[in-house]
Each structure stands twice: as C-alpha cells, then as structure tokens.
Specification:
The complex is a heterodimer of chains A (263) and B (297). Chain A is an all-alpha fold and 263 residues long. Chain A is built from ten helices and two strands, in the order H-H-E-E-H-H-H-H-H-H-H-H. Chain A has a single domain (63-261), classed as MetI-like (MetI-like fold, Orthogonal Bundle). In chain A, a hairpin with a 2-residue loop joins strand 1 and strand 2 (61-62). The two termini of chain A are 37 Å apart. Chain B has a domain at 33-45 and 73-78 and 156-210 and 218-291: Rossmann fold, CATH 3.40.50. Chain B has helices at 47-55, 94-105, 111-124, 140-153, 170-187, 198-204, 233-238, 242-256, 286-291; strands spanning 5-16, 19-31, 36-40, 62-67, 70-71, 79-82, 158-162, 190-195, 207-211, 219-224. Chain B is globular, with a radius of gyration of 20 Å. Classes of the chains: A mainly alpha (263), B alpha/beta (297).
Chain lengths: 263, 297
C-alpha cells in the first residue's frame, strides 16, 4: 500500500505540475495575450510535425525529431571539441601554478561572454570557408561557450587529489605517464564528469542560438523561421522539444556521472 | 655489513612566517641489517618528519641518509612504506593496488611471476578471499593488511612504517602487529617504525629510540629490547624486563621529552591489557614508579 502510494506520488505529483502549467498557458491565451495559441491549437497545428517526426517536406519543413537530430549532431561535434580542448586545459590549470597565473584571468574574462556575442566572431573567423562558414562558426561558438565548466571542474578535481595518492605514486616511483593514467585521471574523473554534464547543458543552450542566427535547419532554426512566418504554435512546439531533449541529455549524463562517482 | 642505514646529522627546517622553524636538528641513527627500530615520541615531535625524509617524501634540509652504501635521493620502491592511513587507490582492487607496486619493483619479471608475488603476499596477510575486492568493500583493518602486503611485495631494502596501526581499534591492532611480525620474521627486513604506543614499540622492535620534543627534536635515549624472537605477546608481557622498559619509556615521555614547560599532552599510552603478576616486577627504581602515570600493580 505504501509502495503504491509512493509510486503514485512519483507520477502523480509531477503531473499536477504540468497540469498547472498548461492551465496557466490556456488562461493566458484566452485573456491577456490573444496571439498566443492555446494548448489545443498548438497541438492541432503541430500534429503534423509530431506524428510524422522524420518526414522531410522541404529544407525548413521537416518532422520535429528530424530537426532535433540535426541539432544533436551539431551539438555532438561542438561538445566533443569542447571536451577535447577543455579537459587538457583543466589538467594544466590544476597541475601548474604558473599556468594558472598566466591563463586564469583571461579565462575569467572570456567565460561570461554570451553565445550570441561569440557567434558573429565565429562567422568572421571562418569567412574563408565559404559555404561551411555557418557550420564552423556554430561549432566554434558551441565549443568556446561549453568548455568552461569542463575546464574549471577538471582543474578543481586535479587540485583536490589527496596528497596520500600522490605519495603512493612517489614512493612507488611511477613514471609521469603512469602517475597520470593510474592516479591523476581516476582521481579527477568524478569532477571531470560533473564538468562534462554542465558543459553538455550549455552546448544544448548554445545550439539554439547558433541555429537561429545562422538559419541552419534544426530545432533552433525552425523556431526562428516559424516566428518569422507567424506560426506561433510551432515556436511552442520547439520550446517544448528543446526542453525535453535537454532534460533527457542531463539525465543521461548524470547516470554516467554516477557510474564514475564510486570509482 | 654492520651499518645498513645511516642517518647522519639529519636536519629539517621549514621556512615560516616567523622565520625558519627547525623541526629536527642533527638527528643521528644507525641501523644494522635486519634490525627493527622504533622511533617513539609525542605527537608532532618530528618523528614522522624523520621517516618522511628517509622515505624521500620530505626534502632534507641538511645532513644525509645512506642506505646499503648508497646515499638516498628522493623516493623509490627500494623502501616499502606503510602509511598511517592505508593510502590505497580506491579505483583499484586490493590485488591491483599491490600489483601497481610489484609492476614497478619487478619490471623484468614475467606476468606470471608478478601474479605469484602479489597473490603470495595478499595470502600471507590473510586476504586470500578478498583479493579482488575494492577498498570500499574492506574494513579498516583489512585495508591496512593490503597496505602491509603492498610494502612487503616490493621486496624493498627496508621497511618504513608511519604509525601503521594508529587508526585501528586495539584488537585489530594486536592482530596486525602479529601479521607484521610474522612477515618480518620471514623476510628479515630492516625496519624503521614510528609510533607513540609504548607497548607496540616494545613488542615489535629490537631497539626503541626516544625522540625529544620539537622544535629541534633529536635522539633522546635509546633502549635495547632484549626479548628473544620469535615473540609471543603473553611471554613478552610476562618477561621480567618488560615493565622496567615500559616504565623507562613512559617516564622519558612524561618528563624528559619536554624541554619547554607546559608543552604536549601526557603520553597516549594505553593501560597494559594483561596485568602482570606483581612478583615478576623487577627491581624498579622506586622514584620512577611514583612518577608513573600507569604503574603495574
């Protein structure tokens, strides 16, 4: 009985939350903002995109999951780049006081810059790439915005390695590579994964902005196009998609993170 | 070779805000091969610093250390260190933790030989059933067994033990002292241990070196422990010299270790687990007895 109750709570209580949000949305759409499509109208107008999620009718007229897939691929590339660059920088920051003194100030200055500010610079940087400029610019923006949590968490993790572990490495006279592989990396891994998870969240945030500005096909690009085409229902569809995908990514990463926590 | 480990005028000075702090000054000690020597003194007197310098984990300010005819520079697997906290890497199993060192010390040996070494030592310390468990699945005592196995498995020239049983409850401590003695008896390793437990020092060592309190700690008094080996705890406790030596150590720690008034707490010596028969009490100097914190009755 108690178990059933707990299970019900687990499903029921979040439902109440969603219900309340939909109710407020409905009320807003009939009172304050008549332009806002009601939940039901949103469903009717989005049905096509949800029920045939992989259909391609035109460059900017595709099923919602197909758009999501494009976005995910771009995010994956940018995110990979962020990790590849960010993790080594994090290790260097954690290991070397001199490196920290040199680069920490510039990192602190660059970190708060918005993706919207980076993107034009990215496009300028890759002007020479011609057709690929928008993709490379977007990748640059994702990488440069998403890497900071990885950089900072890795650095903190390296600094937090207990002296005991390092003493073991010294007493056994492990080589630098062995110390790195067998002691430093495993000891830092939990911190690194926290950074990785936060970075993925940011990468997913950035993709929408990047697509909006470059007009690439994807959830963000679709959102901006539908805004210009006055199809407001589709904006809501995109927002919900972005939200659920972001949530799913975060869950996925926290599962991976937990796996490494005990290590 | 009569002198295996030579510690010569060893000095440690830390720079501090209020000028250089002299922790250890002109510390001299010589160990014969196969000898088990214990450094005893109050917490913070610098005994762990001395051990750290022999281990190569702490820089030497002045003086030098010679092991088996070679001056020591830095740390290395020729000295097996058992730390106070076992210092196992939590992402490796007990087996892998020991293997990490064996790989370093026996890099010419075949994988099978290394495997044998690791399994042998883990079995000797009583972990044959728990070899492939992670440290988080082991009790504190079992972890320290792994720590001991790791040190011995290196086949080091000597053993360095930094309060190896300090974090264990007294029953586990007794057990592990036996494990250590048994291994030591088989391998005849030269060993230097740091402790503040008087009974532990007497039970394990050939000689006990008392250190004066820091700053500028140095050798205060050296006691020979005459009990024949192999040792049995009950027999050692019943030995006519046991309480005389114990009192001598405690009175040193109580009185002579202090050179600054009001420094340090009384020695953290536990009361004797077995009361010795009063008749066995040798002719102690009555003055010493009255000063004792713990006197056998």
């Amino acid at each position: 009985m108690k178990l059933l109750r707990a299970k019900l709570d687990w499903i029921l209580l979040p439902m109440i939350g969603f219900g309340a949000a939909i109710a407020i949305w409905q009320i807003l759409s009939v009172t304050v903002c008549k332009e806002l499509p009601s939940p039901w109208r949103t469903w009717l107008e989005s049905r096509e995109y949800i029920l045939k999620p992989f259909e391609k009718r035109g460059e900017m007229d595709q099923g919602i999951l197909r758009f999501t897939w494009y976005s995910l691929i771009l995010v994956a590339k940018g995110y990979a780049l962020a990790l590849l660059v960010g993790t080594p920088i994090g290790f260097l920051l954690g290991l070397s006081v001199v490196f920290t003194r040199i680069f920490d100030p510039i990192i602190q200055v660059l970190r708060p810059v918005s993706p919207l500010a980076w993107l034009p610079l990215g496009l300028v940087l890759f002007l020479g790439a011609g057709k690929q400029a928008s993709e490379l610019g977007a990748l640059f923006t994702i990488a440069v915005c998403a890497m900071w949590p990885t950089v900072l968490n890795t650095a903190v993790g390296v600094r937090a390695i207990p002296q005991d572990y390092l003493n073991v490495a010294r007493v056994l006279k492990l080589s630098r590579t062995k110390t790195f592989v067998k002691v430093l990396i495993p000891a830092t891994l939990p911190y690194m994964f926290t950074g990785f998870r936060l970075s993925l969240g940011i990468a997913w945030l950035v993709i929408v902005a990047a697509e909006m500005l470059t007009g690439r096909p994807g959830v963000g690009g679709f959102l901006w196009q539908e805004y210009n085409a006055l199809n407001y229902a589709h904006i809501i569809l995109c927002i919900l998609t972005i939200g659920f995908v972001g949530f799913a990514l975060d869950r996925l990463m926290s599962v991976v993170e937990r796996r490494f926590k005990t290590a | 070779m009569s002198e295996y480990l030579v510690i010569d005028n060893l000095t440690k000075i830390y720079p501090s805000a209020r000028g250089p702090a002299v922790i250890v000054k002109d510390f001299n000690l010589r160990l014969k091969k196969g000898e088990f020597v214990t450094l005893i003194g109050h917490s913070g007197c610098g005994k762990s610093t001395v051990l750290g310098m022999v281990a190569g984990l702490s820089d030497i300010t002045d003086g030098g250390i010679i092991l088996a005819g070679k001056e020591l520079v830095g740390a290395g697997p020729d000295r097996g260190v058992v730390f106070q906290s076992p210092c196992l890497l939590p992402w490796f199993t007990a087996y892998e933790n020991v293997m990490l060192g064996v790989d370093q010390a026996f890099y010419t040996a075949s994988p099978q030989e290394r495997n044998q070494i690791v399994e042998y030592y883990l079995t000797v310390v009583g972990l044959s059933d728990s070899m492939h468990k992670y440290p988080s699945e082991l009790s504190q005592g079992m972890r320290q067994r792994v720590g001991i196995a790791r040190a011995f498995a290196l086949c080091p020239k000597m053993l360095l033990l930094d309060e190896p049983f300090g974090m264990l409850d007294s029953l586990t401590r007794f057990e592990l002292q036996e494990v250590l003695l048994e291994l030591w008896r088989k391998d005849k390793k030269t060993a230097l241990m740091v402790t503040h437990d008087v009974d532990e020092a007497l039970f394990l060592s050939d000689r006990v070196v008392c250190m004066t309190d820091g700053p500028e700690a140095e050798v205060g008094e050296v006691l020979d422990v005459p009990f024949e080996r192999p040792r049995d705890r009950a027999k050692v406790m019943a030995h006519p010299d046991y309480y005389r030596l114990r009192e001598q150590l405690i009175s040193f720690l109580n009185d002579r270790a202090h050179r600054r008034p009001g420094s340090g707490a009384p020695p953290p010596s536990s009361p004797a687990p077995h009361a010795a028969p009063a008749t066995k009490l040798p002719d102690p100097k009555p003055t010493a007895v009255t000063q004792l914190a713990v006197s056998p009755s």
